[in-house]
Amino acid sequence: MEDCLAKKLEITVSEAEKRTGRNAMNIQETYTAYLIETRAVESQSEGQCAPVDSLWRRYSEFELLRNYLSVTYPHIVVPPLPEKRADFVWHKLSADNMDPDFVERRRMGLENFLLRVASHPVLCQDKIFYSFLTQEGGWKEMVNETGFQLKADSRLKALNATFRVKNPDKRFTELKHYSDELQSVISHLLRVRARVADRLYGVYKVHGNYGRVFSEWSAIEKEMGDGLQSAGHHMDVYAASIDDILEEEEHYADQLKEYLFYAEALRAVCRKHELMQYDLEMAAQDLASKKQQCEELATGTVRTFSLKGMTSKLFGQETPEQREAKIKVLEEQIQEGEEQLKSKNLEGRDFVKSAWADIERFKEQKNHDLKEALISYAVMQISVCKKGIQVWTNAKECFSKM
Amino acid sequence: DTSLAEANSFSPSMPISPSSMINQYKFEDEPELRDLFIAVDDPESHITAIETFITYRVVTKTSRGEFDSSEYEVRRRYQDFLWLKSKLEEAHPTLIIPPLPEKFVMKGMVERFSDEFIETRRKALHKFLNRVADHPTLTFNEDFKIFLTAQAWELSSHKKQGPGLLSRVGQTIRAVASSVRGGVKNRPEMFTEMNHYMETFSEKINTLDKIAHRIYKEEREYFNEMKEYGPIHTLWSASEEDIADSLKDVASCIDKCCKATEKRMAGLSEILLPILHEYVLYNEILMGVLKRRDQIQGELESRVDALANKKTEKDLFSEEIGKLEDKVECANNALKADWDRWKQNMQCDMRSTFTNVAENNLHYYEECLATWESFLASQTVDFHVEEDSEDRP
Residue span of the signal peptide, if any (chain A) (predicted)? Predict the structure, then answer.
């Protein structure tokens, strides 16, 4: 693997803090700021701890960074940010952005984002990214100075291209379908998981009611009292255990969510291809029509209906000099057009090649990560089962002594 | 005696689950000492011009001398059980007569003649007869014997005999009179304690019954959501190549756990819910028994009070008073003995029921654990195979 930033620099998003300040419209608002800490890796091998640099960033700055990267590297599947608002919550989780659990999970998601960018062979070399990590003041201005917003394709343009493109590379079309399917199935999975979590919470918590009843009942029993009382305690333990269990499951859900959002990044690359291909097709079409015009002027035949042709028929033809001038202009345009077409073709092929290389890299990463996520899910379930076995073994012993 | 041993297995048409067979043998008598085996099974619908009703087959196998035969098979309807219970209460006012399943189900979830309702009722009727059979006194009750052995027409004619309306009216009058008097004056400490015990116990059992139903409901809702969870992974696997197998394996694990949770639910509804319900019904029975004992003592006390004013002729009534005193002593002793027996049975029932519930949950978690562990084992094997293939140039 190439030497990427992640190997030279240790990056963490270590803290989150509530802040109040004035936003762009001078309105008071509350937001969360995240502390990014970086430390050079090399000097650690000497047994010394390198100094830690740190700066604070808020979510909107992360968004700005990502937008910049998406526009600047359209052939790259740019890692997604964690969700802006809490989605797929089960009822005990808060949908509030200020909720400490949500903030904590977002902190981890942002750290994950930075690590993904830092370990990407292309993205990690970007100067703006490096400044994001290391330069507190003036970073926003630096990003805006790159003028990346101008390079961004309009959504409308992209939509138009998607509908009208005639010969996109089939692999991108397939990839688009795949990303739609991926998004749909992961959304569905996360929704059902949230409902299952809700129900599981109910099952565990209801068992907590045993504790009090057993305790009160044990007061009137002589022989059964001890067994009831201690069994009740175990039921309390059982009921309490669900909170940690579900918190851990949230991390698993976050892993899946990352790939849910990656689907959009994949689609963005496909859209760029379609845009470039459409552009190319339009340029080729334009060139072909100019060539035809030129030929018609040169030979004097009108093969296609044109308003010019009609008006010249009605109001008289042009002079030979006028015609010569037109032909010359057209020939210049045709030459320009051919050069443009050539470079567009080249651009398009380069794009497809580099995009597809990154897509292959992404696919490997996705397969590896998702497989690991499934394994970690199994590990979690095993731990839940072991806890359950322990509690019910203890409870069984108490009951058998009643 | 091989017929006794065979009596345990009953007829194949009877759907006794292993857990209910265990329940039968929780009674204080050792199975080998029992000489009366009863089973209730085979519900059948009967439609007449006037009504529709269900009869149950009652099969009795016995080695007792008082019985003319060693095997009986009769059909009884719910009304007949009600009759038996009221006869037992009449004959033994201070004994704890086991509960019968209710006439109607208030919850409204179960229809009157749905299969679920009939099966629940059948099991409860089976329990009732066996509890009566195990009771040291009730088991020799004459009406009980007739119930088990008489053909339908014999039972009908027998029902028409006996005390009947007037004696029931008399009982009610005495009950009203005693409560008007303000209850018993010198109730022995022991029975006051029993009253206090029952106050708390009935409260706790009612709460437990509610908790158990809540747990069942929550487990069922969990099961319903889980049913949808596995298939999504299978759907996903259709879009994938490399991870398709892992996804399918996860789907199958989730489905297995889903089945395990269904078993857990079934266990709860077969083991815990019926027992708690029975003890909820026992609340009323026990309170009733304590009241009747009070009434009997009340009779004595009111007679004594009435005669205290007539200083003369005391000797004339000493026999009457003596009889009443005997009655009170008998009632107290009977109740005390039966109370101890009931408490022992209750402790036994609760111990085995909750132990079963714990075991049920244990099996559930053990099954799920095995499922996920085997998934994990298969995944790490694949992982190592993949890593090896990457090392090759």
Answer: none
